Amino acid sequence: EQLIYPVGFYRTKAHHVKACCEQLVGRFGGRVPDTLEELVTLPGVGRKTANLVLILGFRSRRNICVDVHVHRISNRLGWVTTRTPEETEQALYRVTNPRWWPVINQYLVTWGQNVCRPVHPRCGDCAIARHCPRIGVRAWPGQGRGPGGIR
Predict the structure, then answer these.
(1) How far apart are CA 11 and CA 50, in angstroms?
(2) CB–CB of 149/125 below 8 Å?
(3) How much is the pTM?
(4) Mean of pLDDT values over 61-85
């Protein structure tokens, strides 16, 4: 817990890390599984983490890691119309070029944290603002509606 204290839900995550390590040793001989199906059986590992392990740990080019940023931005841009990150993952496989699958998360997370934020997105600072339909983005009091503002 002390090592991961700055992380949200650190107590739960610390428990999952310990249980995951025990299962890696006990069930998998100390090796990290290389399939999504096996990875998601580990404590605290969902599709997002499993896909990230496959992309970064096994250099998979057949996976997309979808977190809240990727889910939000993909919907905001109109690439998909989905309600959950899992639905977004499946939809992105259908509508994006496979060459981008392993890096979609890398690009959209950074963008989502700094520009296309969940609340008060910085559309005025966005390089693609004039091409973005801004689906679900609402103007707030005092925000301009100029070239970089919210429509």
Answers:
(1) 21
(2) no
(3) 0.85
(4) 97
Nearest to 63 by CA among 111, 104, 101: 101
Structure tokens at 20: 């995951």
Question: Can you read off the two tokens belonging to residue 27?
Answer: 């069930």
Q: Which tens digit of pLDDT belongs to each residue from 2-16?
A: 998 888 899 999 999
* Amino acid identity at 146: G
- In this prediction, residue 149 carries a pLDDT of 46
Give the CA distances from residue 17 to residues 5, 35, 67, 76, in Å, rounded to whole numbers and listed in that order.
Answer: 13, 19, 19, 33
Q: Two tokens at 129? A: 């603002």
Q: What distance in Å separates the CA atoms of residue 81 and residue 87, rounded to the nearest whole number?
A: 9
Burial class (CB in 10 A: 0-12, 13-18, 19+), 73: buried
* Assigned token pair, 131: 């091409």
Alpha-carbon distance 132 to 11, whole Å? 39
| Amino acid at position 34, single letter | D
Q: Identify the band that residue 147 occupies on the pLDDT scale cut at 50, 70 and 90.
A: very low
Among residues 13, 57, 10, the alpha carbon closest in space to that of 33 is found at 57
